[in-house]
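Ticket reopened. Same input as before:
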Amino acid sequence: MLRRVLLAASASPRLRQIVTTAPATRAIVDSYVAGETADDAVRVTRTLRAAGLLVSLDYLGEDTKDLAQASAVADEYIQLLGKLAAEGLTHGGAAEVSVKPTAVGLFLGTAVAAENIRRICAAAIQTGTTVTLDAEEHAAIEPTLRIAADLRAQYGDLGCVIQACLRRSEADCRSLAAHGVRVRLCKGAYSEPESVAFTARREVDASYARCLRTLMNGPGYPMLATHDPRLIEITSSLAVLNGRAADSFEYQMLYGIRPAEQRRLANTGARMRVYVPYGGDWYAYLVRRLAERPANLAFFLRSLRSNT
Ligand code: FDA
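Engineering reply: fixed in the latest deploy. New output:
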């Protein structure tokens, strides 16, 4: 409930202004975001790689309303891939990129986003790595999956994300697993209506477990994005049950969340990828992280009150 209220309130320009200018915000942003520039992203990637972790980089921003801006976001990714490659960080997909279709123009037209994503895929393939398309609010899912399916004819390892909270996701998993696609499975970070999504936590968790079973049982490459200890345990049991080699799937977690668990999993020989956001447009990302964890939110609200 609290989560839904916060996600809805975050659209208010007044709240945005208070949050982005409050001194208390900086420390929390720094715990979830690598920094403002591509150089910050490369520096954090270097550190994570040295600890044996894989990385997916996200240039923060979404809902781009302007053609030139959508194209500039794609340029930023291409430049980032060049910088990562120059340091040998992209080799074998060690550091890849995650792209939000609305950041590269999905709401300006599917063709606009598809062309920008195609340019990023071309740069990724040249540098020996991959691209994964993030999943956003439910209206964006169908066009995103369609773009991914079309581009996969040329860029076979273009990944996509399935949100367990959506009612359609089990069927999406069945179809994607059958085609051997790289699929990231997450719970879903957006506030969605009952008509399209499970809204009770236990229903979302049960849906995640069903999708997980389908993906782990299929011929694709599952990427299990969760910090939930129970789902991580189920994943490792399913890997044993399905005779999956350690390099045939990966765990994924967000930068700054459960870092000790990230290292523990990597030390067991599992592939563990950290999703690292960077850039100045961190507001929406931060709100989603605060909404996921009441403890963070309470701390943040207390700091905000004492600083505003
Ligand atoms: P849950 O929220 O139940 O958390 C389980 C435990 O993890 C908590 O008890 C706590 O210990 C810890 N935890 C979780 N969130 C925390 C936080 N913010 N701060 C501190 N601790 C926290 N969503 C989406 O809609 N589209 C997408 O493309 C992606 N992409 C994506 C990539 C990766 C790599 C990850 C890990 C996640 C996403 N997500 C996403 C976000 C995802 O949908 C979900 O909102 C969060 O991962 C939180 O859900 P959990 O599965 O971790 O479970």
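The first strand starts at residue 54 and ends at 59. Residues 134-135, 161, 163, 186-190, 225-228, 252-254, 257-258, 275, 289, 292-293, 296 surround dihydroflavine-adenine dinucleotide (CB under 6 Å). Please confirm and we'll close it.
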